Amino acid sequence: MTVSKPATQLPGPAWMLMNQKADWQVRGSHGESVFDDHLWVFGGWTRERGSLGDVCYANDGKDWSELKLDVIWSPRHKLPALQFHDKLCTMADHADVLSREVWTLRTLDG
Fold first, then answer.
1. What is the mean pLDDT of each run of 10 residues along the chain (110 residues)?
2. Engineering a disulfide at 33: which of 5, 69, 81, 109 sits with its beta carbon 3.0 to 4.6 angstroms away?
3. Burial, 57: exposed, middle or buried (Cβ in 10 Å; 0-12, 13-18, 19+)?
């Protein structure tokens, strides 16, 4: 991918490429959120693997880590992401079997 710069840079908002190849698998139909001063990407779908069940986060958009927990939902895609009080929530998404589960994640500190 080539990123070209306009001939004249006007003052005001501008997009900046933070990371061309983030450390998470290419995906679509994933959940994403800003929560606890971090960017979050979770679940999603790929042609090769179908639904995904991973959770990745970054505090800067450049350096990503996978969140490793003993309890995690089954692979799924089209996840909504909501912040509710001090938790990140996702629910009612598309897994291999449609789901009515509600999952929450506490802050990284708690």
1. 59 86 91 93 92 92 91 84 89 78 79
2. 81
3. buried
